[in-house]
Design goal:
The longest helix is centred in the middle third of the chain and has 5 residues, at about 50. The protein has a six-stranded antiparallel beta sheet with strand order 1-2-3-8-5-6, with no helix packed on it. The model has no long low-confidence stretch (mean pLDDT about 90). By secondary structure, it is mainly β. The chain has one helix and eight strands, in the order ββββαββββ. The chain is about 5% helix and about 55% strand.
Length: about 110
């Protein structure tokens, strides 16, 4: 992911983001490092057209990364899927609730 990493900015110091893309799609790792449930987290995704070309809609899959301690992670926990429409300049998605000390993996792909 470091080759195609994209710039990310958070207005809350307890949320960390890591975004990247490849030929199969786009990916964002979101970490709620606070001890609180965070509600209605908005992610603004800019310049999606430069990654997805003329596509107007994307499939978004949201997974929760389980806390396995030091054990290997067998699989992520599926949270939900939704369709998003690519806007001209920036596309907003909302994560309704992020549990404390939790990592989420978001995957975007063409329909």
């Amino acid at each position: 992911s470091t080759k195609n990493r994209v710039k990310d900015v958070s207005n809350y110091d307890q949320i960390a983001l890591f975004g990247s893309y490849d030929t199969k799609g786009g990916y964002v790792i979101v970490n709620n490092n606070s001890g609180n449930k965070v509600i209605n987290t908005k992610l603004l995704l800019k310049n999606l057209k430069s990654v997805f070309g003329t596509s107007k809609k994307l499939d978004l899959n949201i997974y929760e990364v389980p806390n396995t301690g030091e054990a290997p992670m067998e699989k992520m926990t599926f949270n939900k899927t939704q369709k998003i429409t690519i806007a001209k300049y920036s596309t907003e998605i909302v994560l309704p609730a992020m549990m404390p000390k939790t990592i989420y993996y978001l995957s975007f792909s063409k329909k």
